[in-house]
Structure formats: C-alpha cells, structure tokens
Design brief:
about 110 residues, 3 helices, globular
Length: about 110
C-alpha cells in the first residue's frame, strides 16, 4: 500500500512539475546577458578552452578567465587532492565583484 501512495505522490509531483515548466516557458523573459558574468579558470589556451570561448562568444556571454598565463599549482586531482588554486582564484574574483548586487556569476569548470 505504501508503494501505491508513493507512486501517486510521484505522479502528482511530476504532473505539477510539467505544468509549471510549460507555463514558465510562455511567460518568462530571456535573461539579460549583460547581468551575467561567466568565470572559469585556465592557465593556458588549450583546444577545449578555445571551443569554450567560441561558444561563449556565440551566445554573447561575458567571460572572465582566471589564472591565464600562471603556472598551474593546483595539483592532479586524479592522483591526489587538489592544491586549491581554482578556489583561491575564484575567491579573489568574487571579492572584487561584491558591490554588484544584480550581477549573476556562473563559475564553469571542466
């Protein structure tokens, strides 16, 4: 009996989600890209970096690259714990943005 109650609850939750998603699509305005800042960390221009920047440019996103040209000191997370370089760079960047209350910051990592 508990499975039936759970199934009914799950079905109603899904129906509500679909209903909200459909109504939000028709009334929601596009997000202004000038209020969005994309942050990422890259120490060198790799192929993946260039593709990412090309995509960001296509969608007219403002991207701030942290750490470009610096030596990578973050470690190899695949083999050990990271060195915290990305976190340090992100923290420094966020401190400089603290006065912009309406800015949305999106941090992108690979």
């Amino acid at each position: 009996m508990e499975y039936v109650k759970f199934g009914v609850l799950l079905w109603f939750s899904w129906a509500q989600f679909i209903s909200n998603a459909h109504s939000a699509d028709s009334s929601q305005q596009p997000f202004p890209t000038e209020k969005l800042l994309v942050l990422t960390v890259a120490t060198q221009e790799t192929d993946g970096y260039r593709r990412f920047m090309q995509s960001a440019d296509y969608f007219n996103y403002t991207v701030k690259v942290l750490g470009m040209g610096e030596e990578w000191k973050g470690g190899d997370v695949g083999r050990s714990i990271g060195g915290g370089q990305k976190v340090r760079l992100l923290k420094e960047a966020m401190e400089g943005l603290s006065d912009q209350e309406d800015l949305v910051v999106l941090f992108v990592d690979r």
